Design the sequence.
């Protein structure tokens, strides 16, 4: 059984049609998940970091949302450019990226 050091959850959820809240999916969260996979592979972190996409976290106005466990750190408004920073600073360095936390 794999026992990762970190488990990264990327919201890929959507809301029902007509809902005025933001939707992580339409804000590029699937591309974020792909970018995280690339970073994890490029940095050879596959044995230490597990990645999953999820349904809605319920904080749509903060999306796209990424959560890192076991630290329980929630990141909001994550862009593709932030993925490298989160990977380097948090997943490799153990320090959450304060300016992205919600």
Sequence:
């Amino acid at each position: 059984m794999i026992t990762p050091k970190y488990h990264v959850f990327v919201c890929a959820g959507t809301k029902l049609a007509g809902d005025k809240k933001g939707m992580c999916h339409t804000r590029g969260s699937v591309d974020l998940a792909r970018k995280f996979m690339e970073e994890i592979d490029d940095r050879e972190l596959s044995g230490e970091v597990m990645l999953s996409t999820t349904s809605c976290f319920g904080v749509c106005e903060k999306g796209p949302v990424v959560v890192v466990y076991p630290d329980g750190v929630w990141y909001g408004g994550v862009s593709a450019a932030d993925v490298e920073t989160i990977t380097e600073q948090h997943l490799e360095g153990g320090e959450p990226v304060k300016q992205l936390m919600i």
